[in-house]
Amino acid sequence: MIPFSYSRAGTAEQATAAAASGHRLLGGGTNLVDLMRRGVEQPERLVDVTGLSDDIRPTPQGGLMIGGAVRNAALAGHPAVRREYPVLSRAVLAGASAQIRNMATVAGNIMQRTRCAYFTDAATRGCNKRSPGSGCDAQGGFSRYHAILGGSSACIATHPSDMCVALAALDAQVHLASAAGLRVVPLVEFHRLPGDAPHLDTVLQPGEIITALELPPPPAAMRSAYRKVRDRASYAFALVSVAACVTVDRGTLTDIRLAFGGIAPKPWRALRAEEALRGTPATPQAIAAALALDFAEAKPLDGNAFKLPLASRTAMAVLADLIGDAA
Amino acid sequence: MAISINGRDVALPDDPRVSLADLLRDDLHLTGTKIGCNQGGCGACTVLLDGARVLSCLTLAVQAEGRRVTTIEGLAEADQLHPLQAAFIAQDGFQCGYCTPGQICAAEALLRELAEGLPSYVTADITAPAPLSAEEIRERMSGNLCRCGAHPGIVAAILQVAEERAA
Amino acid sequence: MSRVQNAVIGSVRTVVGWLPERWLPGGSPDPLIGRHGEVGRQLGHLDGPLKVTGAARFAAEVPLEQLCHAALVHSPVARGRIATLDTRAAEAAPGVVLVLTHRTMPRLEPVPLISITNMTAVGNSALPILQDPEIRYNGQVVALVLAETPQQADFAASLIDISYDEAPARTRFEAAKPQARTPASILVERNEEAVGDAEAALRQSAFQVDAIYTTPGHNHAAIEPHAVTAAWTGDRLVLHDATQAIAPTAAALAKLFDIRREDVRVLSPFVGGGFGAKGFWDHHVLAVAAARLVRRPVRLVLSREAVFRMVGGRSPTEQRVALAAEAGGRFTALIHTGYSVMPPYGACPEQYTLGSRALYRAQNVRFGQKHLDLDVVPNTYMRAPGEAVGSFALESAVDELAHQMSMDPIELRLRNDPEVHPLSGIPFSQRALAEAYRQGAEAFGWAARNATPRTRREGEWLLGMGCATGSFPYVRMPAGAVRIRLTRDGRASVACSAQDMGMGTATVQSQHAADRLGLPLAAVSFEMGDSDLPPAPMAGGSGQTVSIVAAVAAAATKLTGELLRLAGNASPLAGLRAGEVRLQEGGLVSLADPARRDSFDAILSRAGREDITVTESAAAPLEMFKYAMQSQSANFCDLRVSAVTGEIRITRLLGVFDVGTILNPRTAASQLRGGMIMGLGMALSEEVLFDERSGRIMNAGLADYHIPAHLDIPEIDVRWTGIPDPRSPLGARGIGEIAITGVAAAIANAVFNATGTRLRDLPLTLDKLLEEEGA
Fold first, then answer.
1. Which residue in C has a C-alpha nearest to residue A231's C-alpha?
2. Where would I find the Aldehyde oxidase/xanthine dehydrogenase a/b hammerhead domain in this sequence (chain C) (predicted)?
3. Measured between CB atoms, does B90 come within 8 Å of chain A?
4. Tens-digit pLDDT profile for residues C333-386
5. Model's pTM, two decimal places?
6. Could you say which of C437, C491, C647, C704 is the most buried, measured as most Cβ atoms within 10 Å of its Cβ?
7. Which residue of A has its CA nearest to B124?
8. Cα–Cα distance between C136 and C169 in angstroms, integer?
9. Which domain holds residue A288?
10. Residues within 8 A of B (CB atoms), C 233-292 only
């Protein structure tokens, strides 16, 4: 690790000021400290933001406002989250280990960087995300954990978060603050697709910080599930994960929100499938056809082509369970 | 300000690069806390921070300022073995012993999490208090790797203490 | 291993074969076999309290004054030369004590490679260590930095500026095949063996399987990373090490640094897992050299990444197994050949065909292995080298053949169970595989298996059962001494430089010594982990326990003779010879007349002695040549496979082991379960991702090299036949490695039973199932 300075921010104002002056924000450190030790990240100044809001409180609209410094474990264990947004609890609990969930913050989880082996190994030459213009060794290399959707010739890294997949399905909003003021960005628009600038993971501007996450009110009678498919039964990143929220009324799918993890540079909302299925009885054949709409643009490689059938089959099983249970 | 480690106040290191694990092992010679990977991938460095289990390898020591750290050396009362330590011996919950302190610290926190009714990924109904079962313990201990393959003994030891506490 | 060695080993076998049994170790069974004493009793690890309280100090945990910390720099290229090297910024960085590169490293000879015939040779690599600017593999150490703190050392290491002139590297398995080498021998066995015409028999038989099985590189992944703390005082060296080879390490360091053997002390009381990895590697030499240069103690702890890059793992293999049978099930042909990686500067052939040579009787056989030279860190032994991956190929093929023949796979195996060693014709010392299968099938409920694949299902989960044989040879090392000190109060301390990576060495050796010396367990202590003690062989080949037992037995015999001599004419035993008494209940007792006895206290008191000390070595392990000594196991697996995702989850594992006497059922059961769990990891998730473009390992960490986690591990039932081996000390054979063997095949066979899909490439990941299904 290179030498760095360490300070703490007690308020969002202090944190934005520090961010504006070139500090990197440090939450639980579960990702940043690891990457600093690997030499992938080399910040000279750290500001610890774990002292910022760790409240989870109801919003006037009937949703929840979750402070950026809320620990992952606290989020998953919160009674209101377990009761009203179980898909979020389950997604968080699917990630990492109990120790890491006790450390990692919600904002840090959103900001975590890819686990692509060519990104996390600072001695590998070709990684446009780590070193713009250097190439992408994952293409032609090990691409099992990589994107089949949303990647570019410059980068096929996936975003590794489980939590964000559930947040995408829940239409969460990310609250941002900077010296210029506050703004709110839908989570599904917060992470960028790589295009020709894969070093930019998100739309966060210099000097801007995440202050909170907002969950809209849960639809009445919503049923939800999170299923994670991985190599080890626990403590492993997703090959594919599915977050699904559905409302079924007398055999008709009146509402559906479907998001995938492990297959794209960002949590992937299957908007085309949702639209095709909304208001239908959602038979297995219809679900398969609807999913094909989203996967039509997939660009699988030899190493990750299995994710197309895997994502599709996993989503079909999850939806069949949810719809079947509701019937 | 200082860090309270096993009830004793310890000054912060001057170098913010020093992790909590480094502080414990190199400066304080509390080497019961192990480093297996220094990457958050094995759980050998697990300690309790204000009672919650964390990885001391990814915690900067300066981040623990004003907080309470309990390590394997501070788990037991005086010269007694902690019930989990005794159960790990009784159930052969180790071979080489290197991951053992981390397993035991994680297990102590796990029992508290279960007592608080917190769910895990394998809990069927996450709105209700999670039940005690081998599967729950396996999932909740999955962040602590063991290469000798002492897992069955570890799970048996934790179940034993959980049942003793419930009785 | 050479043709000369083949000839030597061959003639030893011949001569030993002619010798009368009574002249040989094991010629008459160990009198302790079957005696009910401490051996065979349940006893927990004696060092348990130290381990559960964190008080056990490992190699990186010894506090020393003036200690400085080392960090390493590794080459990111596989082949070439250092073109430019600038260490000025590193040398100027805060806290830096030394920067060591090929320019400043003392000139040293290569380390003698591990050898079966030289127990003091311990090296895993013959490559020079920081001796020149050549780069020979990706990950090679190119610099070491010493600083006052580990943080300063790490940072300074990052400031060393190196550029490389890259050269073409041999990194591709497939491309290396045309230049593959065919060694004359594999360990002490002739490499290429053939009986009859196996290829012709294969073509002509009613049933045949002929398939390629592949296994990836594996990493030992002991949770304790390799670490040494080296301290010189003048020309005397103390090394706190994490090693499976204490005495050989001390001998190697003395030779390398040109000091007297007695001026080197290697201490390794606790080792945080070994599995073959904790041998002698570059970090030993680097730390010792650096400490000598700066005249301060040096601690070098490998980063987890460095463990992957500079300590070899298990080689990948590509194996062909062909099996043919006549309608009755008798094997007419067995062919097992293949490729593994073994660079010429390495020491460890992956002996994947050796197990197959002892397991089945077949009319025609052919065995042979080829080595591929790649520019990589040399592979080394990893738990059950050879058998772990060889049994996956062979035992998958047997299952394939059984399915083709509509025969129960256990029945097929037993119909080909040999009476004598199939190649040499030498009798087995003891062999009860059939009994292991009988016990296992009953305990497991094998009868409930439906032989037709994909017939049992619960919801989305397809259910399957499989079985497979595991095997591992008996090994006793040809060296090893122990010292016994007996005091007047009837206490004994037994000592040698033994190693314990978690198996419970001190625990079972204390049990054994109590029985051998006729003392209660509480009166016996076992000292180990220190090269100043009489030299024990390295802990390898599952051979440490019997090797030390044999040495203790020899020392006890010597002790008996010395005690008789001291006892003199005043003793009730006067006139008796060593073979006519035994050590029992705190004294010597006449075998013929148990009323004639003399206590240790009385003997030593009369002689005016407080204690008596003897040191003795074990006899050469000639029993290994007189008899075919082999352990077997019957492995059973019950699992489920998601019909949706292809995820495989193990429901139950059961192993029945035919491994001779079990010395301590508790520690043995734990060790056997542990081996099966490593087999589970090998089956389902373990794979070193070696990027053939760069020659670089891309998952050099525990988050990405997936060893099993708690949730992967089901109920595991281990049992044993408990039949002693009449030819081995205590009737025991090693148990450290056999349990990993056969497990991956049992799982693969169960996956086939569940899904109807045959996977022949480890690990058995869901993508392979989905692809096979789609194909």
1. C685
2. 53-168
3. no
4. 999 999 999 999 999 999 999 999 999 999 999 999 999 999 999 999 999 999
5. 0.98
6. C437
7. A90
8. 8
9. 223-326
10. 270-275
